[in-house]
Design goal:
89% helix, 206 residues
Length: 206
Amino acid sequence: MLLDYVVSAFVTLAIVVDPVGLAPVFVGVTEDLPPATHRAVAVRACVIAAGILIGTALIGDALLRWLGISLPAFQIAGGLLLFWIGADMVYGTRTEREGKAAERALEEHIRYVAAFPLAIPLMAGPGAIAATLLFSGLAHTWTLTAALIGIIVAVCALTFVGFCFAGAIRRGLGITGNVVLSRLLGVILAALAVQYVIDGVRAALR
């Protein structure tokens, strides 16, 4: 139970946040900043995103109960949203939007690029929040909740590592490599999303 939960939650959040895919965006957002500030921006972005997702994990289940939303209903809605994000990744529209968000940040000279667009909406965006709410609803014990928090920290730490090696990752994968990886991760996420919808429908019918 614990192992299945950890694997499923980690794979889903890692795909949605996409640490490798965000590396080129990080390069674009920080290219006009002094090199000495890049690490500070990376740390700030990851801390902000982790705080948002951990807060979501801690109050997610209570929020659903307060709003009167059943877990099967949220599973179906979350699965549909994750499928949409997976389709975006397969067709490349997500990367295009992320690039435009980064360009706007630079053009408008946003001072705190760590908060926007890095932490929000690229790391802790609608998909990541929906996935965290979904798994917080499935965490029926404090052990699972602690595991989810650990997974969030681990994914944000991986993203930080990706930011630190953003330039090397971008050059290593190249344009073709980045496109292929994004498409592959999108297909996997879409398949996971369909499974969430199936599980939600089965639970609702029961």
